[in-house]
Amino acid sequence: MDSPQAKVPPRYVPTLTEVVTGLEPVAPEAWVAQAAPELPAAAPLEAAPAVLFEAPAVPTAADMAVVEEQLVQRLLQRVELALDQRLQACIAQVVQEQTRSITLRLQEELESVVRQTVHDAVAQELEQSAPR
Which of 52, 86, 89, 108 falls between 20 and 30 A from 127, CA-CA? Predict the structure, then answer.
């Protein structure tokens, strides 16, 4: 069996580091008085103004336009970022494919030029060294 001291909770789990004894229970009203002694006592619920209980205001067309504009701006930023990343990847792939294609074609052309040059040089040498 594991002892209570053998189990160590993960770091993100809060643990009690100090045992407090001998405290007397305190009423919630005393908490408020201790936390904010300069605040006046709360008025009874019946005396609360009716404004506190009104329904929330319905957004106006101007409010909706502002929210819509903010939403459009955020969406455009996300689309721009995603499009930029995808375009970079696509362009890199096309450039790599074109580079391979050009490299193969250049190799073929270079081989053809070297063959023709060597052929011409050999032909000229044979022509010059032939008996007359």
Answer: 108
* pLDDT, the chain, mean: 79
Q: Tell me how far apart the alpha carbons of residues 118 and 93 are, in angstroms, rounded to a whole number.
A: 37
* Amino acid at site 89: A
Instruction: Select from 16, 19, 42 the least CA-distant residue to 31.
Output: 42
d(CA 78, CA 73): 9
- Which tokens is 83 given? 């499009």
Mean pLDDT of 78-101: 93
**Distance of alpha carbon 66 from alpha carbon 74, whole angstroms:** 12
What is the C-alpha separation between 109 and 100, in angstroms, rounded? 14
Distance CA 58, CA 67 (A): 14
Domain boundaries, the chain: 60-132
